[in-house]
């Protein structure tokens, strides 16, 4: 067994780091990868991974005087530990996560929470068990049990139980409707007075190149609650993004790194809530990706906006710059300020990424602008060691260059799959055109790690005929013809 250690150090006012079992369902698919048991970490961070290496520790440090920096610009302050996470693996994959709290008075690490993974003979995780520490003893708290769809890594039901009165008792279950190998509807029910009752329903709907995530709640009938529209994408992109988001959450990094937003596989996203009184959807927040910047200082940007009565107002933007290895070099968070009767972009925060000689992520330093000075407020330090599973399981060879493969089946109706592979992490754009060269839809757009991938093309909304699938990644452009038959 090998222990993978993640060490988090935060301010006294930060909330305790822990896992919410209800938010963990999408992690399953990545944890099943036996060839790279560290995949959950490396995929979530999209680190440039060198074969045979895994991250063994992440140390997070912050300035404990942060709350006083507006009046005291001193930055030479010893960083204070707060939490630590140890992740343990065997040849089948992740088997345990142990969380620690730091006792500042006793200057010692105290075990706080434990998660155990039970795997079947195929290496698939069947059960997550969560334990909290009380009076020096770990006590069972919650358990999640998985059933899979047709012997695939995709769950079709998840049962969540709580430990009460000395035994496991039903608490919540999710039933997942699978269509074309992807979730279409997730039904959440809660256990009440000896029976299951409806609680929430999440649907994924594809319309004209967009993906709509509709959330409804049960109130004697299904009632609209939230709606999110993802532009230029697919259900497959949606699931990929959910996987990455859940992995960030599992590792406790969702609030620590802006780079998760760079993994966003859509050109835009609009969030709305249902106004029950006026019976209409009301805008809340919007993300817009811009990959064609005039600004020579960055490679791409994401704008975050909120709805203010009758118009969108920009809250801030993130500028992403890459190094020569196509890994993130730095991220700038900027807000608009008025200067000489015009609005200019002002940098409020910077995340700087550095890598070691092997191309592995070594440090992330976050700085914040305070009274005209950039002050270090957080640091993540990554430590790596050789992958213990590398000698037991042969890792898949990564392609030397990008390749767009032939679709199958072809001709098709109602669905076909187009496989492709890329030799290194990078931005991938796959679009569909008709035979005249007219744009039809975007099948995928966003950063992806090196390796093998696929996109799904559905005949819904497409007339019979020949179409062109075009993939662009770095200096490579590939095209394939597909034929819709109705």
Key words describing this protein structure:
single chain, 486 residues, mainly beta, 21-stranded antiparallel beta sheet, 4-stranded antiparallel beta sheet, 28 strands, globular
Structural class: mainly beta
Strand tally, please? 28
Segments where pLDDT lies below 50 for 5+ residues? 1-51, 67-75, 391-399
Helix content: under 10%
Total tally of structural domains: 2
Describe this structure in words.
The model is unreliable at 1-51, 67-75 and 391-399 (pLDDT under 50). The protein has helices at residues 28-31, 39-45, 235-250, 259-262; strands spanning 2-8, 53-62, 83-90, 93-103, 108-119, 125-134, 137-148, 155-164, 167-179, 182-192, 195-207, 210-218, 222-231, 268-275, 280-290, 300-308, 311-322, 328-339, 342-355, 361-370, 373-386, 403-404, 415-422, 426-434, 439-448, 451-458, 465-473, 476-484. The radius of gyration is 24 Å and the shape is globular. With 486 residues, the chain is mainly beta. It has two domains: 2-386, no CATH class; 403-484, Sandwich (Immunoglobulin-like), CATH 2.60.40. 6% of the residues lie in helices and 58% in strands. The strands form three sheets. It has a 21-stranded antiparallel β-sheet. A four-stranded antiparallel β-sheet has the order 25-24-27-28, with no helix packed on it. The protein is built from four helices and 28 strands. The longest helix is centred in the middle third of the chain and has 16 residues, at 235-250.
């Amino acid at each position: 067994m090998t222990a993978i250690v993640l060490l988090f150090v935060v301010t006294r006012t930060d909330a305790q780091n822990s896992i919410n079992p209800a938010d963990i369902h999408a992690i399953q698919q990545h944890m099943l990868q036996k060839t790279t048991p560290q995949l959950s970490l490396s995929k979530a961070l999209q680190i440039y991974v060198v074969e045979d290496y895994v991250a063994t520790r992440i140390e997070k440090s912050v300035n404990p005087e942060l709350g006083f920096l507006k009046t005291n610009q001193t930055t030479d302050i010893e960083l204070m530990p707060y939490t630590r996470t140890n992740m343990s693996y065997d040849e089948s994959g992740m088997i345990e996560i142990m969380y620690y709290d730091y006792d500042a008075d006793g200057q010692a690490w105290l075990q706080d929470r434990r998660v155990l993974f039970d795997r079947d003979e195929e290496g698939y995780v069947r059960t997550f068990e969560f334990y909290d520490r009380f009076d020096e003893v770990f006590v069972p708290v919650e358990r999640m049990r998985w059933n899979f769809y047709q012997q695939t890594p995709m769950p079709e039901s998840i049962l969540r139980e709580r430990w009460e009165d000395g035994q496991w008792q039903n608490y919540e279950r999710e039933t997942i409707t699978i269509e074309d190998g992807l979730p279409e509807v997730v039904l959440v029910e809660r256990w009440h007075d000896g029976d299951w009752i409806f609680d929430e329903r999440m649907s994924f709907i594809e319309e004209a190149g967009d993906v709509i995530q509709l959330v409804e709640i049960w109130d004697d009938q299904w009632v609209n609650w939230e709606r999110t529209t993802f532009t230029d994408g697919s259900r497959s992109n949606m699931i990929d993004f959910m996987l990455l988001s859940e992995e960030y959450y599992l590792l406790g990094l969702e609030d620590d790194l802006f780079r998760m937003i760079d993994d966003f596989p859509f050109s835009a996203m609009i969030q709305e809530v249902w106004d029950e009184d006026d019976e209409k959807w009301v805008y809340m927040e919007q993300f817009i990706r811009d990959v064609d910047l005039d600004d020579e200082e960055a490679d791409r940007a994401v704008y975050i906006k909120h709805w203010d009565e009758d118009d969108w107002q920009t809250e801030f933007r993130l500028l992403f710059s890459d190094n020569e290895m196509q890994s993130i070099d730095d991220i700038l968070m900027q807000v608009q300020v008025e200067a000489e009767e015009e609005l200019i972009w002002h940098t409020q925060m910077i995340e700087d990424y550095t890598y070691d000689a092997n191309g592995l992520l070594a440090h992330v330093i976050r700085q914040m602008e305070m009274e005209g000075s950039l002050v270090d407020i957080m640091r993540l330090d990554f430590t790596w060691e050789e992958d213990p599973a590398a000698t037991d399981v042969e890792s898949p060879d990564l392609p030397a260059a990008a390749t767009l493969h032939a679709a199958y089946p072809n001709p098709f109706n109602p669905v076909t799959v187009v496989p492709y592979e890329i030799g290194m992490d990078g931005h991938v754009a796959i679009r569909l055109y008709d035979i005249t060269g007219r744009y039809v839809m975007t099948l995928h757009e966003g950063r992806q790690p090196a390796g093998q991938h696929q996109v799904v093309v559905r005949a819904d909304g497409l007339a019979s005929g020949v179409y062109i699938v075009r993939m662009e990644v770095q200096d490579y452009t590939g095209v394939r013809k597909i034929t819709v038959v109705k």
